[in-house]
Design brief:
Order of helices and strands: EEEEHEHHE
Distance between the termini: 14 Å
Strand order of the largest sheet: 5-1-6
Number of strands: 6
Strand content: 25-35%
Largest sheet: 3 strands, antiparallel
Radius of gyration: 12 Å
Structural class: alpha+beta
Length: 91
Amino acid sequence: MDSSTRLCRSPNATYQTVADEAILIHMQTGTYYSLNEVGTVFWELLDGTKSIADCAVMIAAEYDATSEMIEGDLIEVAQDLFREGLAEKAS
């Protein structure tokens, strides 16, 4: 997985945003996950059309940071979401 990877939310995942943080639930396992504010913005951007690099640029603009600062963290989060079955690679 790299900055050009495009992800979408898995149909096995549902979520609710509470106080700017997302609570994700894997519908098949019942396991709960939580994302901080930036992770929640990233999660909401996972529509299969944007690459991780695209998301980093958008998030960096919102948080007055550089996309380079954000991109590595997003790749890490993306790998975790993919590994847990909460996100899928877009076709």
